[in-house]
Amino acid sequence: MADQKAVVGIDIGGTKTLIGLVDRTGEVLVKQQFPTMITDSPEIHIQKCIETVHICLAKAGLTHHSLLGIGVNVPGLADPEKGILLHAPYAGWKNVPVKELLEREWPGMPINIANDVNACALGELIFGIGKQYNSFLWVTISTGIGGGLIIDRQIYEGEHFIAGEVGHLVVQWEEGNLCGCGNRGCLEAHASGTAIAKAAKEKLAALPKDSPFSTYFIERKKDITAQSVAEAAYKGIEEAKEIYQQAGEYIGRAFSYAINIMNPGAIIMGGGVSLSIDLLEPYIRQTFQTAVISEANKNMPILLTDLGYEAALIGAASLIYADIYIGPIKEMNR
Amino acid sequence: MADQKAVVGIDIGGTKTLIGLVDRTGEVLVKQQFPTMITDSPEIHIQKCIETVHICLAKAGLTHHSLLGIGVNVPGLADPEKGILLHAPYAGWKNVPVKELLEREWPGMPINIANDVNACALGELIFGIGKQYNSFLWVTISTGIGGGLIIDRQIYEGEHFIAGEVGHLVVQWEEGNLCGCGNRGCLEAHASGTAIAKAAKEKLAALPKDSPFSTYFIERKKDITAQSVAEAAYKGIEEAKEIYQQAGEYIGRAFSYAINIMNPGAIIMGGGVSLSIDLLEPYIRQTFQTAVISEANKNMPILLTDLGYEAALIGAASLIYADIYIGPIKEMNR
């Protein structure tokens, strides 16, 4: 394995940081994770990342001479040109010179950083089902909802690095739920994992204790999460199916906007909630078909990522592989 | 003027076809128009265009040797690569080989064709207020509503040439008006000139005959059009102002979708209804500010074209000037 070339992927997530070596085919050779401690300063967190990279290299029997580069996902707003994490709201980190901190350890090493959702989109483009499309919309449906645009086989970030904000498209104008962003009726406030769990809790509070939905959760002593609601839906509990139907309809509304504006080749989904695609997809499609024009748009492929659990890590590594396979990542709009 | 170089712009509109010579600064040197007769076959219509180009050349004292090329706007779906008008629904024309028909008259002449809305966007980019932006959304608000995207100083047409369909974004999910496209609640069905006139007629039917709104139209024996409703609003008639307020709110909804997805540098509007921008703009902005994230997006410039009545003709000519000033028009997504 000593002559093998690899890329380091660093996926700094809200709860854990996953680091691994990813080879040219997108396979994860080794990986190692540790909790993201928001009590750490960002400098200390990056230092922990550096130590973990050394551990991964040792595990793989490689030195940094085998590295093609380092790709870093950050959970927030990034300036990819300068390699700076501008703002990670959950941790309160601001203006962290991620690239510079890593370059101190490995001078001359190619290092690219990006927002995690954009990195996922790029990973999908290079190693996933997105390979077959020139343009697509990537959507992560998880605790929150994020989106990334691939246009002409490039990440498209927009004038202020905030393109693809699918989670904050308003899908309910009349009586929208309050969103974390301060607006009302955002997709994230109606169809994220958090929103699905909240809808289920409200339904439980409103239903009699002996209803099938209530009984399901009480008997199993299950926490109410998007996942447990999905399990109930798969078991045939009507109220649980309705919650996913409603979420699917709202996702369909947001997709209709993106489709009419972008006319992408496909929409590709990832994230925990998207795994329940068969509960969602009929309602997503039914809704956007009433709200887009042209047959081509009505038949837009809605797909699930095939990169699985390591999608974000592969996404991080793809920030370097993009330079090799596609050419330097161009900020299209600058 | 004999050594002056110019581009022929051909703007085939629904009711008239406008042909002119446009110089390198975007100035219209001469122009000539004739009615678009949908009873004509498309071949006969193109023949009339050819004759009119000859008239324009004669008027300007030029020959075709002075021409840098010919740009043609078509009112429908175009395939710019092949130079084919795929479908002009209003005339029933399909698969018209516009470029080939013109090349028979002028072999070797550079000829580009595009959908009229996309051409307007390009005209704005090269000769208008769009010069200062790398990316913007162009929106024509007229009898109908159309949109064109400029990304990275190129027309972005999407996978099937149908990106930028702002007019068919659903802005009213609950009780939407029926749109010409067959869907309900499209922006075009709520805020186009046609929709504004329809709303005014419905309001007139519902109001007593001696209401200020009714009196305004009855006394003046005015036809009810978007323009006459705007005049009433400028005269302070509340009901007329409300119609524009409602239209502005719906335009704001659609713009919020485009802004969250594309994060463009600006939105630039043209078309008859957009001239009433001061009736619309406060409500457009108020609405999209409640529905986009980030300060940059909330402060998105909403601008009116400065190319005036000849915007579409200049747009047609810019299909050729784009090759000269920006480089060959690239279909970004193919």
UniProtKB/TrEMBL annotation, chains A, B:
InterPro entries: ATPase_NBD (IPR043129), ROK (IPR000600), ROK_cs (IPR049874). Signal peptide: none annotated. Belongs to the ROK (NagC/XylR) family. This is ROK family protein. The lineage of its organism: Bacteria, Bacillati, Bacillota, Bacilli, Bacillales.
